[in-house]
Amino acid sequence: MPMKSLSMALSWILLLLWCIATCTEALKVKITDSMPSRNLLSRRIQKTGVISGLVSGRKAEDGQMTMLSSIDMLQSHRSPLLIRGGYLPSNGPSSGRPSGTKAGTENTQPATSGSVILGTASRPNISSLRMTKSTSSDTKMEASISPEVGSIKPRDLSRAVVRTVENDQIVKPQGDKRQYRHIWLENGLQVLLTSDPSIDVAAASMHIHCGHFHDPEEFPGLAHFHEHMLFLGTQAFPQEGEYERFLSEHGGYTNAYTSMEDTNYYFAVEHMALRPALQRFSAFFLSPLFDEGALDREQRAVDSEHTNNVLEDNWRITQVAKSTSDRRHPFHKFSTGNLQTLAKPGVRDALLDFNQRYYSAPLMKLTLVGREGLEDLQNMAVEYFQDVRNSGTPPNHVYPTPAFGPDQLGTLRHTVALKERRSVSLMFALPKTDGPQAGGGLWSKPCSYLSHLIGHEGPGSLHLLLNSRGWINSLSAGVPMKFSDAEYFKVSISLTEEGAKHIDEINLLVFAYINLLRKEGPQEWIHNEIAQMSAVSFRYKEWGEAVDFAQDTAQLMKKYPPEYIMSGPYRMSEWDPDLVEKITGLLTPENCVVEVVNKDFGLEPDIDEWEQEEWYGTRFRQARLSEAQVAAWREAQAPAALALPPPNRFLPTDFTIRAIAAATKQGQGQGEEEGATASAGVEGDGDGDDAAVLDMAGMSPSAVAALAALDTTPPTLVHEEEGYKIWHKMDSTFLVPKSNILVKLFTGEDGNYASPVHMTMVRLYARMVREELNEFSYDARMAGLRYGISADPDSLDISVSGYSDKLPELLQRVATTTRSILSDLRSMGHSPEGLDGEVKKLKRWAAFEKHRQGLLREYNNFVRQSPYEVASYYTRHALESKMYHLNEYAAVLRSTQLCTPAGIARVLEGVLSRLQVEVLAHGNLDSEEATHLSSLLKAELQSIPLPTSELPDDRLVVVPQKGVLVQMPTPNEDEENSAVEVHFQVGPEDGEDDSGRRGCLLDLVSHMAYTSAFNQLRTEEQLGYIVSSFQRKSGEPQVLGFSVMVQGPHHPPSHLDDRIENWLQMFRQQLVDMSPEEFSSNVNAVVLQKLEKDTRLNEETGRHWAEISTRKYNFERWPKEARVTSALTQAQLVAFVDRHFTLGSPDRRKLAVHIASAKLPADQLAALPAHGAGHVLHTLDDIRAYK
């Protein structure tokens, strides 16, 4: 290793040891305040640019609501703002679907993409601090974390553990160096032990096979309420919030969710604190209190949660489906609960009975992930969980009748949406295809086979045909619901306005394609292709966060044998054509529920005569399919355009790991034997069981040293010319045959954000490029390749990622299309008139119209956003010096003169003519490959350099000392909730000096404030279910800020604002009264978060891209900030709070945004907070005049 690198490594090791020594005493104290699900906000958003609850400014595809959009925040109740616990209307989270299959798990809440992160991303990774085993310092710290927790006493494992599956029996990904053991405890609890000496964050997850299906009929929502109550104290730790408080002060977080038949609890914590965290966690399942004093408060929290969902279409539509099912099956139940169902006599007894019956060890599956060895982890499992009761409740649930039987199937349902939404879905009832009775379905996965074909988007596909007619936005197929007794295969189609007029033709074509599959019969080569890609996906699987791994495997234990807990979702080792034929034979009109959803149904003249669902008030009507419809669909013949897909030419074949090859070559070049090699190729049976293992033991000593040296380097600038930079880093950490290439095309003042017209055209352009590439790229996506093109106000972002083998072909096509599509758009003119007979141009016009309507629909749906989202949107408007409103974009989209294909071409030709380009190539490619791939892009761009002086200035407005108050009603007249965001502008990121201390102080405040704010405003005062505090970093140069957000149905915004001010005074006093040990513990938690290693290639890519895409290039940011944070004092923190947040401070700059429910009395709508306000603004024009 070069002396410079060795010196740097030693310095960081000394820093770590100093941090450990400094913080050891702090970890001895017992902690006193709580943080339910808090670092879910921290850690999840941390990957996009924060340490603790950051909200970035205008750096998203649209100048839209980038704060915490419904897509980000409502994907499940594990989301940051929907704090403790929640209910998942789907059957729990995805269990790791192989990437080679069509998206077959259709969540009823929006889901995030698995593609590489674009934009800022930054979880710290200090590779020189990578530790391969627990050090003596770690051991001392671990033993001193909590005085009430002593060493684990050895148990008689021959009695406590009745069966074991060892590491060498468990199938795991290639190169996975973790050690695993699966055990059964004497009480019936199954545990997966995972030992990983390299992790910084340990985790655990308990999965219980019971959910809202098991609610008593007289207490709907009891399972969900029970989940909430477990967080409110146990006999071992009776103080409310003690468990969450402990996790918060040790860099961790926790949450839970309840679904139909399952409930999951999980936590993450710095690795030294796993043992005391498990002691607290286990008490949930040994001795919950169900304290009488907490019942009323938590009932109100559940009711507030339900109030938040009442106007959400996904919840409403799901409940309609439930209400139309057979009432003898528990699917029909109201899942969330509210005051009406829970605030009544006997609820505590019902909780106790529910706990006694269903929280039984044989229904539980536990995963532990820690640095400790397997024996130590096993001792922890025995110590803390062997006393969990076995109530004798059968682990397999049996129901008297199917949820959808003959009376419910063969029907057509029309449902009214609140938002602009048009869709049709066809749901088919199937027997269990992956249970013991399925005869091999667990390993043949017939539904994956069918979802792959029906959801295909390439040549011959149903999607391609419907899309070419301009009828659909998207089509997916899969199994969104699985119960113990059945599963349901669903084809879901999002419709365009034109498509909504052709429902009958669309349904006919769906059945025509299904009939084609019957006619062609099961195709083994298609199964083998899916199996091959699934095996490759598992072989190179990166586990990522320990807590995600814990959740997934705890859930999978109920389905797969211990040997296949990890590989089971990817294993397709059997081909069962008879089962495929049987399942295909059940995709019939008589075995189907067709549902059409449309907001326009609400305009039907007889709407008041439609049925109204009990809990959400959704209007719907349902009738039997006519005999004519059934007959037509049964006999539907596939047109010539429908066919089985061709073989996938993107399946990777070259899995060479460049870093190993380079290190080996370097070692050989230093005179060592030629025999020093590493295995990189793959041979196997398609299941991954006998895949080759990365054999670094065979490498020469200097090759290993060269590999280690590569691991410590930041990206290198391998090419630079005016307006064009290429950064490169060859991966030597994760050693997977994958790469990420990220490109940022910076535009000038006259570029993307020059006007609402420009921004709208750029967004439509990005969508049209994706549309043009869809047919070509679909097979690439199925083969583990991804691309993206998106529009920021200051740039166009392009990404390609996946297996390096086929990446050049994908990048070449993407780069070519970005230019070639402009001439096509230009030739289409401003109207489709006169294009008769020009089929290709007419199809493009249909695609353009689809995307124009889709973007317009998104803007129109703004009126249905939650109040906290609206508050966030207007917070940005008040802060950003230049920001267009959604209404301005909508006006452009409605203009037939401005919004045309030729208009897109005109704007983009100008935008792309002058660019400043940044490229990052990271992963399994060398510098020559990176330069070559980047040159492909450059050749297609054909732009001239944009001077740095002409880059747009994204400055913020300085909030005046006397403050600003924005008061607006929610745009949704049906909304019962009000919301506030109280924002304190802190100042530029670096502050008065260049140390970064201001940002580190805000990180520490954010870490500590979340716990305090949640406990006071949510748990104690019950102001609303949504309570959060977070950082907001905006503008360029970046300006720091701190926000508190509250949404609830019971109080006007002025009251919420007053209570936030009151809490701030309490929080300030808490900081003053905090013991030195407690303060040091919080500092240590933030330091360790900053030093946490990346767990996947994409995380490291995102961290480097955060520096490159912002042109800061501070690749050592996190160790520097860790050093600064470690030196902060309690006095400095109190002074920081006094200066920026305390009433009366001359440096306090407060912006408050009040969004009031339209149902509030008029006097409350305009009420001012008790402490007054400076500028009071009521309209967008007011905001612009103020700025």
From TrEMBL:
One of its GO terms (biological process) is proteolysis involved in protein catabolic process. Residues 538-659, 712-891 form the Peptidase M16 middle/third domain. Pfam families: Peptidase_M16, Peptidase_M16_C, Peptidase_M16_M, PqqF-like_C_4. Residues 84-147, 664-694 are annotated as: Disordered. InterPro entries: Metalloenz_LuxS/M16 (IPR011249), Pept_M16_N (IPR011765), Peptidase_M16 (IPR050626), Peptidase_M16_C (IPR007863), Peptidase_M16_M (IPR032632), PqqF-like_C_4 (IPR054734). Residues 191-325 form the Peptidase M16 N-terminal domain. GO terms for molecular function: metal ion binding; metalloendopeptidase activity. Residues 1004-1105 form the Coenzyme PQQ synthesis protein F-like C-terminal lobe domain. Residues 1-26 form the signal peptide. Its cofactor is Zn(2+). Residues 102-115, 122-138 have a biased composition (Polar residues). Residues 89-100 have a biased composition (Low complexity). GO terms for cellular component: cytosol; mitochondrion. Residues 348-531 form the Peptidase M16 C-terminal domain. It comes from the Eukaryota. Keywords: Hydrolase, Metal-binding, Metalloprotease, Protease, Signal, Zinc. PANTHER family: INSULIN-DEGRADING ENZYME-RELATED (PTHR43690:SF18), NARDILYSIN (PTHR43690). Belongs to the peptidase M16 family. This is Insulin-degrading enzyme. It comes from Fibrocapsa japonica.
